UniProtKB/TrEMBL annotation:
Protein name: Uncharacterized protein
UniProt-listed SUPFAM superfamilies: S-adenosyl-L-methionine-dependent methyltransferases
Species this chain originates from: candidate division CSSED10-310 bacterium
Family matches, as InterPro entries: SAM-dependent_MTases_sf
Domain of life: Bacteria
């Protein structure tokens, strides 16, 4: 790819398809490699329906 960016996004819970902690670390490191100094990584987390309901009940 050879490019760098101000912002990198990972939306719609797509990070949840990374199956292992090792692969997650590799994924984030790769994103970081392509991020300009002072840039931002934005993740929309993987939330299961159970976590979503529990979170809503606490509010």
């Amino acid at each position: 790819m050879g490019k760098t960016y101000d912002v990198i996004t990972c939306l719609f819970s797509s990070i949840g398809y990374v199956k292992t902690l090792s692969k997650l670390n590799q994924t984030v490191a790769c994103m970081d490699h392509h991020l300009l100094p002072g840039g931002h990584l934005i993740f929309e987390p993987w939330l299961t329906q159970v976590l979503w309901v529990l979170r809503a009940q606490k509010q």
